[in-house]
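User:
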Amino acid sequence: MVRLRRRARERVRSPEDTATLAEHLGELRDRLIKSILALAAGGLVVFFAYDQVQSWLAGPYRDVCQANPDFGCTGDFLITDPLDGFATRMRVSGYGGFILALPVILWQAWRFVVPGLHPKEKRYAVPFVLAATVLFLFGAAVAWFTLPKALEFLVSFSGESVTAAFNPGRYVRLVTLMMVSFGLGFLFPVVLVFLQLVGVVTPRALSSARRYALVVIVVVAAVITPSGDPYSLLALAVPMYVFYELSILIGWLVARRRAKVAARSASPSPA
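Assistant: Predicted structure:
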C-alpha cells in the first residue's frame, strides 16, 4: 500500500509526460465527442436557418439569370425527385455545421497534438494553424465571387433551346467543391514554407524551378477546379503563383535570420 501511494505521488501529470496508449485513446475519444457535439450543434443551427442559407447560396444563380435573360431562368431551383428537398437540406446542414464547428474542431485537434510537440514545434504550430485557416477561408471567398462568371460560362455552352433550371442538390455540391478546391489551393504557400523550414527544399531550389512551377500550378488548377471554366482557372492559378513567389521570399528571410543567429552564436564572446 505504501509503495502504491508513493508511486501515485511521484507521478507528475503534465503535457510533457509520456502517456500510455489507453490514455491517448481516451483523450482522442473525448476530443472526438466534443467535435461531434459541436458539429451536431452547428448542423442544427443551419437546419433551422435553411431558408436564409439557401437564399444566400442561390445568390450567384439569381445574378446570372438577371444578367442573362436569354438563359430563360428565374433563379428558382428545380426539384425532380421527392427526396431532393430533404436531401439538399441535410447536405447544406452538414456543410454549414462543419463550417460553424470548425473553430472547435481545430481547437480540439490542437489540444490533442500539442502535448507531443517539442517547444520549437509548438512555436511554429500556432502561426501555421492560423495562416492555414485564414488562407482556406480566403480561397473559399475567392471561389464564391468567381462563381457567377463560372455559371455564366457553363450555361452559355448549353445551347439556345435550353432553359437553365438547376437542381438544388447538384448546385450546392458544385458550390461546395468550388470553395473547398480554392481553399485547398490557397494552402499552397503554407506547405512550401513548412518544407523550407524543415529543410526539405531551399529557396534557391524553388527560385530556379519557377518555369516548371508555373506549368504545374496551371495544370493543378485546371484539374482541381470542378467547373473547368477559364475564369475559375485563372482565379486559382494566379494567386497560387503569387503565393509561390511569396513563399520563396519568406524562405530567404528565414534563411537569412538563421544565418545571422548561427554567426552570432559562433563568434567568440568578448573577454
